[in-house]
Amino acid sequence: MSDIQTSKRLVTVLRHTASQMNISIDINGFVKVSELLSTREFSHLTPTDIKRIADNDAKKRYFIKNQYGELMIRANQGHSLQVSDLSFQPVLSGRDYPNVIHGTRHHAWNVISRDGLSKMGRMHIHFAIGVPGDPKVISGMPRNSEIIIYLNLNLALKNGMKFFLSENNVMLTEGDVNGFIKPKYFQKVIDRKTGNLLTW
Asked: How far is Cα 99 from Cα 160, in angstroms, rounded to an integer?
């Protein structure tokens, strides 16, 4: 299995399935690397392999630390597992974030244009803080996105929504009380291929 394939499986475990695999995950989302390596799925790896995979991840999805001589790893965001402290930085103003975008596919747009963006079982809705193609945008938007939704961050903040930045500069929010960002908070929506503005 390549490092890329292993990384995809590793991030799934750290975000979603650690508990199902009887891997202990702490309140901050960290698991012991030694515990990961004791599972059948990752038993062929070494701590050095895990560190290399995390360090080389293009989307910077991992955070590794050494705690009391124990190597620990977590995913920076994207959890469906309930973790309460991921060291997010609160976003208090939209002044420094002129482009806050969410990428999606054509088949999802009909529902999104009506109901808004949803957490869909995760803890947060994710946004990139840049424009498509910007090399500084390393995470927060799928590469195969066909539609780009620009968020009116100032309006969402004004109406009481809370936003945070993760370690790898993904903007996150729980949305409203129902876990949605309604279409009224969309600033503009663009078809990525044609450049046309979409209406909703």
From this structure: 19
Is 84 part of any domain? no
Q: What is the CATH number of the domain that holds 106?
A: 3.20.170.30
Instruction: Give the Cα separation of 29 and 25 in Å (integer).
Output: 6
Please say whether the beta carbons of 30 and 22 come within 8 A: no
Model confidence pLDDT, tens digit, residues 5-62 = 888 888 888 887 887 788 888 877 888 999 999 998 899 999 999 999 999 988 788 8
Predicted model pTM: 0.64
d(CA 193, CA 169) in angstroms, rounded, equals 25
Which residues, 6+ apart, have CB-to-CB distance to 114 below 8 Å? 183, 200
Pick the last residue of a domain from 49, 75, 101: 75
Q: Which two tokens stand for residue 147?
A: 């539609």
**Which is it for strands 163-165 and 171-173: parallel, antiparallel or unpaired?**
antiparallel
Residue 81 lies in a domain: no
